[in-house]
From TrEMBL:
<dbReference type="GO" id="GO:0006633">
    <property type="term" value="P:fatty acid biosynthetic process"/>
</dbReference>
<dbReference type="GO" id="GO:0005829">
    <property type="term" value="C:cytosol"/>
</dbReference>
<dbReference type="InterPro" id="IPR014043">
    <property type="entry name" value="Acyl_transferase_dom"/>
</dbReference>
<dbReference type="GO" id="GO:0004314">
    <property type="term" value="F:[acyl-carrier-protein] S-malonyltransferase activity"/>
</dbReference>
<dbReference type="InterPro" id="IPR001227">
    <property type="entry name" value="Ac_transferase_dom_sf"/>
</dbReference>
<dbReference type="Pfam" id="PF00698">
    <property type="entry name" value="Acyl_transf_1"/>
</dbReference>
<protein>
    <recommendedName>
        <fullName>Malonyl CoA-acyl carrier protein transacylase</fullName>
        <ecNumber>2.3.1.39</ecNumber>
    </recommendedName>
</protein>
<feature type="active site">
    <location>
        <position position="101"/>
    </location>
</feature>
<dbReference type="InterPro" id="IPR050858">
    <property type="entry name" value="Mal-CoA-ACP_Trans/PKS_FabD"/>
</dbReference>
<comment type="similarity">
    <text>Belongs to the fabD family.</text>
</comment>
<dbReference type="InterPro" id="IPR024925">
    <property type="entry name" value="Malonyl_CoA-ACP_transAc"/>
</dbReference>
<feature type="domain" description="Malonyl-CoA:ACP transacylase (MAT)">
    <location>
        <begin position="18"/>
        <end position="312"/>
    </location>
</feature>
<keyword id="KW-0808">Transferase</keyword>
<dbReference type="InterPro" id="IPR016036">
    <property type="entry name" value="Malonyl_transacylase_ACP-bd"/>
</dbReference>
<keyword id="KW-0012">Acyltransferase</keyword>
<dbReference type="InterPro" id="IPR004410">
    <property type="entry name" value="Malonyl_CoA-ACP_transAc_FabD"/>
</dbReference>
<feature type="active site">
    <location>
        <position position="211"/>
    </location>
</feature>
Length: 328
């Protein structure tokens, strides 16, 4: 969608669109919507041409969907397909966009900062670099539940000091929910310590430890690809993962995308930012409803809507139009 089209669309004042990251994928995603809206298949065809492989086949069959280099472009494309259907059906333009990890690229494409083709190539490379940065079985990630953020950070620091590797808070997802990532032994030490301190710990089935210092080599290589990619300032404000702020220029945007690989996802701060701006409605533009469910816990968010089925899309369209005063 062009910057002019974005400007001409009905503008929402109370709505944020959020785009999910890795973990939201599932075989058969968007199959129902693809039967109803040609934009879904057209978007996947456009992205597949850029990527050089059939993204729709992967999305429907599940073949390779657990491999990071394929997961990332498939999820990005699915999110943009939903975005295009939303606009085709007359959905309002949100006040802000934000994406969780990989989802930040979906947000940037939706806001016109980069083309879908360029973004697909970038995240395919991003996935490959992440996969090769850490030998299989060396890294791990775990969700720590029921502890304060500061407690989790302290446990990570102790485990890193005591062990030979390192572990960090990777995703601040919500109050009492922090994902840690790093060397396997140190992650396991944090899990054990979390349970001793009254929290819960769940090992995550991931192939790479994202958003920790183990990803620095990948970030250094990825920065070169970012420099070669055409990027403009978004036509809609996109809240960045690393600092929960809006980039002032394209240099800052590129830097934030590079740092995003090895720094924490500040999702808790991101959602606090949108609440501080008076946002009351969250629309999750991607497969699943992970981010919508997180948003439902927040005090100032009235409703959160996923979009990944025809009925959910219709519910969100009508509810947001009414909430934003576009229809009575």
């Amino acid at each position: 969608m062009s910057a002019k089209q974005i400007e001409q669309a009905a503008q929402a004042m109370k709505t944020v669109f959020v785009f999910p990251g890795q973990g939201s994928q599932k075989a058969g995603m968007l199959a129902e919507l693809a039967e109803q809206f040609s934009a879904v298949q057209e978007t996947f065809a456009e992205a597949s041409a850029a990527a050089g492989f059939d993204l729709w086949h992967i999305a429907q069959s599940g073949e390779g969907l657990d491999q990071t280099e394929f997961t990332q472009p498939v999820l990005l494309t699915a999110s943009i397909a939903l975005w295009r259907v939303w606009l085709e059906l007359g959905g309002v333009m949100p006040k802000y966009l934000a994406g969780h990890s990989l989802g930040e690229y979906s947000a940037l494409v939706a806001a016109g900062a980069m083309s879908l083709g360029d973004a697909v190539k970038l995240v395919n490379l991003r996935g490959k670099l992440m996969q090769t940065a850490v030998p299989q079985g060396k890294g791990a990630m775990a969700a720590i539940l029921g502890l304060e953020d500061e407690q989790v950070v302290e446990l990570c620091a102790k485990a890193s000091t005591a062990g030979e590797g390192s572990v960090q808070a990777a995703n601040y997802n919500a109050k009492g929910q922090v994902v840690v990532a790093g060397d396997k032994a140190e992650v396991e030490a944090v899990m054990a310590a979390a349970k001793e301190n009254g929290g819960k710990a769940i090992s995550l089935p991931v192939s790479v430890p994202s958003h920790c210092t183990l990803m620095k080599p990948a970030a250094e290589q990825f920065a070169e690809a970012l420099e070669q990619t055409a990027i403009e300032l978004p036509s809609l404000p996109v809240i960045q993962n690393v600092n929960a702020e809006i980039a002032a220029d394209t240099a800052a945007l590129r830097q934030a995308l590079t740092e995003q690989l090895y720094q924490s996802v500040q999702w808790t701060k991101t959602m606090q930012f949108v609440q501080d701006q008076g946002i009351q409605y969250v629309v999750e533009c991607g497969p699943g409803n992970v981010l919508a469910n997180l948003a439902k816990r927040l005090p100032n968010i009235e409703k959160a809507f996923p979009l990944d089925s025809k009925s959910r899309m219709e519910d969100a369209l009508s509810a947001i139009l009414v909430a934003e005063g576009k229809i009575a």
